[in-house]
Batch of 2 targets.
Target 1
Amino acid sequence: MTGGSLVLGLAAIGTGNNLLFLLLGAVLGFIALSGWMSEQTLRALEVRRRGPVAATAGEPARVAYEVRNGKRRLPSFAVEVGEAGSAGRAWIPALAAGEGATARAEQTWERRGVYPLATVVLATSFPFGLFRKERDVELPGEAVVRPRTDLPVREPRPAGRRSLATDRAHAGAVGGRGDFRALRPYRPGDDPRDVHWPTTARVGEPTVREFERDRSRALWLCLELRAPEGEAAETAAGTVAALAAAALRRGEVFALATGEARVPPGVGPAQLERVLDALARARFRPDAPRVVPPAPPAECVLVSAGPGGGAGWGDVFRAGEAAP
Amino acid sequence: MRLALLHRRLAAGMALTALAGFTAGAGVSAVTALAGLALVVALARLPPPEAGPWVERAVRAGALLLCARMVYVAFVARGDFMPDVLAMLLFLLVGESLRPLDARNDMRLYALSLALMIAATAYSPGLGFAAAFVAFVALSTLALMTGHLRRESERFRVPAVRVGRGFLGATAALSGVTVLCSAALFVVFPRLPRSWNVQGRPGGAAVMAGFGDEVSLGEHGTRISPNPEVAFRVEFPEGEVPDPAELRWRGRSFDRFDGVRWSRTPGQAYVAGSWARYAERWGGPLRSYRVYGGPAGARVLFGLHPLLRVQPRSAVRILRDPTGDVRFFGSDAPSYDALSAAPLPPEEALRAAAGEPPAWEARYLQLPPLSARVLRLADSLAAGEPTRLDRARAVERWLRSEFRYTLELPRDADEARLESFLFRRRAGHCEYFSTAMAVLLRAQGIPARNVTGFLGGEWNSFGRYLAVTGNDAHSWVEVWFPGLGWVPFDPTPPGGRALATEAEDGWSRPAFLWLDGLQHRWYKWVIGYDMDKQVAVFRRVGDWFERGGGGRDAAWRWDGRGGGPRLPPREALPWAVGAAVLAWLLVRGGRRRRRTPGAESRAYLALRRAYARAGYAEEGAGGPLDFAAGLRARGAPGAEAAARAVDLYVRARFGGQAIGEDGRAALAGALAEPRAALRVARRARPPGRKRALTSTGRPQ
C-alpha cells in the first residue's frame, strides 16, 4: 500500500494529472482511516481472563477471555486477544458498544510447571488489514501446566510384590492384600508366592493368583524432588501423574507426597486434579528436602528421577524405567 | 447474506464504479459495455461453483490471446497498443469478478479496480468521474472491511460472522472521511508549474464539425440535429455581460470557395494586419475574458474579433496563423486568457476606409464559376451604393430580409448548390447565408471571407459563466476594409439561433445549467487546479486567519492569482438549507436508531404481539412480568416457555446482563415454543369462532 501510494504520488507529480492527486489522496485517506479506526477499535476495551488457567503439558489448552467494549457509541470489530509472547489468539468479530463477549484462545505449553502470565495483548488489524495495532493490558495471573497422564506405567505393587526396578521382593504389610480376584498366567516380576501350584500343574504353565487391592488403604505416591531439573525429572512427574490416573481408573484411594507438599488421600477426578496441580507446582532441585513416607514405606510407591534410594519402599519407579 | 458473498458483491460493485469512472472519460464502447454487463452478472448472480474451472480456462485463454494481440500491435503493426492494454485490464477485472466465491482473489480485484480508475484519469473525465470516484471510495471502504473480516473469520475458523445493515451504513459513512482526506490532500499537495506537465485531452466526445480545414455546403437529406454539448465556457471579470447573444466567438476563416466547399489556401502570407493596430484604430473599450475548453476535435482557439492577445493557461502552445486564426498544439485541454477590441470600428471610419489594395487581395476575390444570374444579382445589389460599407450592408440587409432561416437541409445535391439557395429555395442555414454574402461581395470586387465560430451562448447564473454550446455554432462573413482590417457582417436572419433557442426553452434547462455549472467547476478547480490556483487558495486561507475570517474583498481577482473561489451569497442560502436538512435527517436517523429496540426487545415484542393476536393478552397493557403472569393464569398455550423468554428479556433489558449469543439463541428458542403452541391452538379452534376480550384481556 505504501509503495503503491509512493508510485501514485510520483505519477501524479510527474504528469500533473490532478485526478491522480485525487486518487493518491483517497489512498492516503484509506491509510489514515485505517489508523484511526484501529485505534478506536482498541480504545476502552476491558479484558479479563476467565477462571484459572489450567493446561496439560504438550496439549492445546483453551484460555478464556472476557472482553467488554466500554465505549458509549462505537462498536469494536475483529479484536484479537491473547497472552503476550505467545502465538495463541482468540478472535471476536464484533463487540457492540457496552457489550461483552467471551473468546477462547488455544495455547500449548510443552512442559509442566507454573507459568506466570503478566500481559494480555489486545490487537486488531481492522478495518483493512493494512496495519496492525496492539494494546498491552497488565493482567497478572498464572497458568498451571500439569504433567501428562498418558505415560505408560505398570501397576504399582506396594504390598510386598517383587519390584521390577530392584528385583527384590518386599515383605509388605499385614492386610496389604485384598480379596482373591482371578488366576492369570505368570508374568515376570510376579511374586513367586502367588503361584497357584495346582493350576500350574494342570495347565502346564505357571499361573498366579491375582488379588484385589485393599481399597480401604491409600496408595501413597511419593515423588522424590531431590534431583536436577531435566528430562528425567519431567518423566518422574509424568510417572506419578500416570500412576494417579491409573489409580483413578481402578477406583482406588490415592495420595501424593513430595518433600514440600502433600495431597491427602482421596478419590475421584477432583483428587486427580489436586494431585496434578501439586505435580505442576513441584520443583526438582538437588537440595530439595527428601520425601518422607507418610505411611509405612512398604505401602508407599516411590517415584524418583535418579538412581539410588528406594530401600524399604513398597514399590519404586525410576525415571526411564517406568514402562512395563 | 454470507460474508463471502457480500464481500464479492461489494468488490464487483467497486469494479463497476471504476468502470463507470473510466467510461466517464473514455466513453462507452463495445468493450466497456460488455465488461459492464459481465460485472452486473457478477454483482447479481455469480456463476455456480462448478463453472469455476471453465471461467479459469476462459480467463487464461483470453488473456493469452490479448497478450498476443498486444505484442502484434506493438512490435509488428507498430500501432497504438494502449486500447489493447485497457481491454486486457477490463478482461482481467471481469474474469476475477466471475470467479467462484472461494477464490482468494480479493487483492487482485482491488488492484485491478484501482488500475482502471488510474487509467480513467488519463482521459480528463468530467463530472461523472467525480460521482464514480465517491461511489468507488465508499464501495472500496466497504469491500476492504468485509474482505478483512472474511479473511480473519476464515483464519480463526469463525464461520458465522454476520454483518448488519448498521455496520454497512456506518462504514459507508466513514468513507466520507476518506473523501475528505482525498480532497484535503488534493488541495495542499504541492503542484508544479503547468508547463512542466502534460495532461490528456478529453476523449470520447464526437468531433464538432465546422472548425477543420474545410466547410462544405453540400450536406443534404434531413434536418440539422441539435448539439447541446458545451463547446467552451467563458468567464468575464465583470461577471455577467449584458449582451451575451451578440458575442461572436470567431474560430476559423476560409478564403477559397469551389462552389460547394470552403477551404484554406496553404502557405498564406500574413494578411491579418497588426493586431495592436486594431485596438488603436477601432477604438472603444477593450474586453478581457477567460476561456475554458474548446469544441471536441477543433485545434483552434475561439475569441471575440478582433482578438488582440491570447495567453495560454494550460499546457498548450499557441500559434497565430497568417489569417489571424489562433491555433494551438499540445495534448492538454485549452484554457486561455484573451483580450479583444470593440466588436466594430466607428461607422464613419468604415465609410471613410480607403487605401491601396493589399498584395493578397486576389485570394479573397477568388470565385468559383458562377452563372450570369449571380453576377447580375451582385451588380443589382451594389447599384447605387457608394461605399464598401454600404454595399456590404445592402447585401447583408437583402439576405436578412428576403431569405428565411431553416434547419431543414436541402433535399438533394442540386438543391444544396448556392444558386439553388439564391434563386429557388431562398431558405437555408447560416453557412448558405455567409457563403452567399461572401460570393456576392467578391463578385463586386470586395475582399471577403467566410468565418465559422459561435454566436452568443447562454449565461449560467449558477456557475457565473457563459456556456457556448454546439447549438450556438454559426458562420458569418468578414469584409476587408483598408486601414481597418477585417470587419464582421452577419447576413443570417434572426431565426439563425433557432437551435439554441429551442434548447434554452426546454423544461430541463435549469437542471442542465446547474449540472453544467458543476461540470465547469470540476474542470476549473479539479482538472485545472494548478500552482496559481493553489497559491491563491493558500493566500485566501492566510487572509482568513489574519483578518479574523473576513478575508479581503479584492482577494479573488479574476486573473486567478489573487484568491480562491468564493460562493456568491445568493447561492449560499440553498447550500445552507441543504446542509441543515441533511444534518436534521442525520440527527433524526441517529435518534431513531437509538430508539430501535435490541434483539431481546424485538423478540419480547414479537411474543406479545403473537399472544395479543391469539387473544391472550392486550398489546401494550402491563409490564413484562404482568404479561407472563397473565399468560400463566389464563393457561395460555406455551405459557411456561413464554415466561422463560420474558425472564431472559427482563434480565437483558433491565438487569443489564449481557445474555450474549447463547442467550439470544435461547430467547429465540423460547419464542418458537409458544408460537408453535399458539399455532396448534389456532388450528384446533372451531372455524368462525373468535375470541372476545374482556377488559382484562381474558378470552371468553
Target 2
Amino acid sequence: MTETSNQVPEDKVSIEIDGQTVLADKGSMIIHATDAHGINVPRFCYHKKLSIAANCRMCMVDVEKAPKPLPACATPVVDGMKIYTRSKRATSGQKNAMEFLLINHPLDCPICDQGGECELQDVAMGYGRDVSRFVEGKRSVADEDLGSLVASDMTRCIHCTRCVRFLNEIAGTDELGGIGRGDRTYIATAIGQGLDSEMSGNIIDLCPVGALTNKPFRFKARAWELMATAGLSMHDALGSNIYYHTRHGKILRAVPRENESINEAWLSDRDRYGIHGLNNDQDRVTQPMVKQSGQWNVITWEQALTILADKLKDTAAEEVALYTGQHTTSEEYFLLKKLFDQLGSDQHEHRLSTVDFSASFQAPRTEVSLADVAEQKQIIMVGCYARHEQPILNHKIRQAWLNGAEVNAFGPCHFEQNFDLKLDITGHQMDWVKKLGSLALSLAEISGRKPDGALGDWLQQQSADEDINSLAKSLLKNDHKTLFILGQISARHPQAQLIKALVEWMAPLVDASINQVLDGANSMGAALNGLYNDQDIKRNDHAVNLIYQAEIQDFAEPAKIKECLVNSEMTVVFNAFCDEALKSRADLILPIALLPETSGSLINNYGQRQDALVAHKAPGDTKPGWRVLRVLGNILGFDGFEYEDVHEVMQETEQLKSLPTPVPVAIKEIDAYKAKGLVLYAHHGIYDGDALVRRSRPLQESKLATADTVYVNPGDLLSIGFEAGDLVSVEQNGRYAELTLATDEAVPTGSAVINMGRLSTLNINAGELSVSIIGAQS
Amino acid sequence: MFQIVNPQNTEKTHLDLLTDETKATIDYWLKKYPHEQRRSAVLGALHAVQDQNGGWISTELMAAVSEYIDIPLVWVREAAEFYSMFHTQPVGRHKISICTNISCMLRGADKVVKYAEDKLNIKLGQTTEDGRITLVMEEECVAACTGAPMMIIDGHYHENLTEETIDEILGGLE
C-alpha cells in the first residue's frame, strides 16, 4: 500500500473504478476519470466544455462508504476512492433518474426531429423501462420563435441548462434562462426577441433532446440516412473543421468536427448555415455559356475552353489579368500560377479586399497560434471586429479576457463585444489611425526611441491624451504576453500600410507579437502560390480579365473593377454563381465547383494545411476547377498539366515553400488624406462576405444580417439635413448608392458607415473616403 | 453555477422607471454583497419595484432592475418568475395567498380555496373584476402549521380559517 501510493505523482490521486485502478487529477471529478478511461457513465447536463451543473442526476455512481449514489460529474475524486458504475445501487440510481426525466418528456420519438440522434433516446434504451408507469397528464410548453437558425420544441426540454450555460460562458450573451419553478420550469429568452449570438447554432448540438434543433434542416432527414464527410469551413481563414451530413450527394447540414487547435467543439453560425447558399439556384451557373452578339448561348466545355485558349493566344501576355477569390483550394491556385507563368503574365491578384498597394507584398504575420491567443495577457485589436471576422478567434480573445487579460481596441466604430474593452478608441476612418499614431507617439516619448523617416515625422504631428498615455505606460511596463491583432478593417483601410507600420514599430518596443486576420479561407494558399502583384493591377487596363471564384461584391473597390471589366475585350468568369452584376459584364462563363463540391487543401490563418473532401454533388455540367485548368493548360500546349487526379496536384502543393519572414513596412510618404463631407467606413457585415453566405437564406433572415443602410451619428443628422428612415443617395466621386439613412450612437461623428458586399453598394469604392449624403427620394 | 462573466448593459434606457426610494432600497441590498456577487441583490430589488408598482413587476421594471444592478435581464426574469411572492401580471389591491401545503391540506385547505373562489367568483391566479382582490396561484408552506388552514393577505397571516372567518376577513377588505 505504501509502496503504490509513493508512485502516485503529487498532482494525482489513485482511485479504483469498477475494480480497475487508475490515476486521476487532484480536484477533478469522477466523470473526468471515467471519460478518460473509456468507462461509460450516462449524462445529460455534463459537458466537458461547460461548467458543472449537476442538475440532471443521470450520472449516478456508487461510491464505497458513501450513504447514497453520487453524481459522477460533481463528486471530486479522493485518494483510495472505490467507484462502481454498474453496481446495483448505481444502476438503480440511473434508472430512477431516467424514469424521472421521462415523466414529462413526450414519448413520441418517431415525430421528433432529434429521433435517431438523441442522447435521451440512447440513454433511455440503456436505462429506461420498456413501458412508462406514468399515466397522468404531461406538461406542455409554448414555443418561442428563436429566429431563423434554431427551432424550439420546448415541451421536450429536460432542463439540463447546457444551452443556458453555453450562452453564458462561451457565447457571452446570456440570452436564455430557466423561467418558472419545479415541473413548470421552461427555458426562454428574457423578452422573446430571439437569439443574437454569432455562435447560437451550437446550442443545437449541445441539446441532448429534441428541444433545440436546426431550423433549416428540420424534418429534412433522419440521422441514419446521412453520411458524414470531413470538410472545412470556407467562410473565414480558420478552416474550422466540419462534418457535412449528406444524403444522395447533397449536403443537408453542417456540424462541428472537433479540433482542439482550431474550433474546439464549436462552429460559428456562418460556418454552420453557409451551406444553405448551395441550394439557392437562382443564379447558379450549370453550363458553359458564351455571349454572342448580346445573346447568352450554352456551349460545350470543349468549345468554351477553345474560345478562351484562342483569345489567350491572340493576346499579349501582360494584357491578361486574373482576379481570384480567397476561398479557392491551393491546388487551383497552384495551377493558375503555373498557367500564368507559362503565359508570361504577372498580372494576378488574390487580395480583392485590399485597397492600399503602396508597399510591396509581404507574408502575413501570425506570430501567435490560435490556441495561444487565449493565453495572452494584453490584447490590442487594431481595426478588428473579430466577432464577425473570425468568430472562433473572438472566442479565444474572450477566453483570454475571462482569464484576466486586458483588451483594448482601436477602430472606426464601437462594436458590440462579448467582453469588456478597457479602452475602445474610435474615430472616423482617418481619426482612429491618428489615435493609433498617438499611442506610438506616447510610446516613443516615454521610451525615448523614435521611428525614422516619414513615420517619425508623421508621429510628431499627433498628440496623445491621458488614456493613450496610460495605455502606453502599461504596455511598456508589462512583462507578459501582449498581442496586437490587425483585423480586416485595417487590411481594407486606405492607409493599411501605415497602420501596419505603426504596429510593426510598436510591437518590438513592448515585446509584443502581431497576428493579422486574413480574409477568405485560403488567402495564405494564394500567397504561397505567388498569386499577387506588387502593384494594384486594377490601375492597368487589360484586354482579357479572368475572374476566378469571385463576385463583384468581393472586391473592396467594386466600382473600380466594374470599370476594368467594361473596358476589357473579354471577361471570363470561372464561378459557381453568376449574378446579374457580373453577368452583364462577362463574355464567357465557366461553371466550376465550390469548395464543398471539390477536393483540395486549404492553408489557414495560422499556417495549418488541411484537406477537404467532396461532400456535395455539383449541379449540371459544373466541373472542379483543377480539372478545367488542367485541360486549359493542355489546350494551350503548356508543360506540366498532365495530372490525372487531384491528389497529384495536392502532392505538388504540399511541397510549396513557406513565404520569407516578413520585414517591417517601410513608409516612404504618408498621404495627408483630406475627406470632404463624411468619412466613409466601408463595413463588411458578417453575412456579406462570400457567394455562399450571401445566398444562405437562414443567415440572411437572421438578426445579424445587414441591410441597405447608411449609418451616421445622430449628432450629424442636422448638418446632413435628412431624418433617420429617409431614402437617400450616397454620393462618392460622381457615383451614387441608394440607401436608407439610419443613426447609431456607436458611429463616430463625421463618419458614414456603409454595408459593403451587397448589390446596393457596388458603386462605392472602399478606398475613397469622401462621401456625401444628398437628395432624398420621395 | 453562473458567474457574471459578460459585459453588461451598455444602454441604460429604463433607469428612469425606478423611484428614488426604490433606488435607495436596491443600494441598501447591493451593499450587503461583494460586487461580483451583486446578483444576490436581485430579490431585494424585485420586492422594492413590486411595492413601487402596486404589487406587480412589469417587463420594463425587470429591465430597469437589470440595468441598475448590472446583470443580464434574463437573470432578473428567472428570479421574478421563480418565487410565488413576485407577480409578473397586474394584481388587485389585495393579494390573498392560501396555503395548500401538507398541513393546511390535511386541515381542509382545498375547501378554503373552493369557498374563496366561489365567494369571489374567480379562480386561483385571477383578480376580481373590480380590481379588489387577487387570489395568488399558489403558496408553499410559510411555517404556520399550528394555525392550519391559513392564508396570507398582504403579508399578514390569518389562521384557523372557517367559512365564517373567511367571510369576515374578505368583507373587511377595501
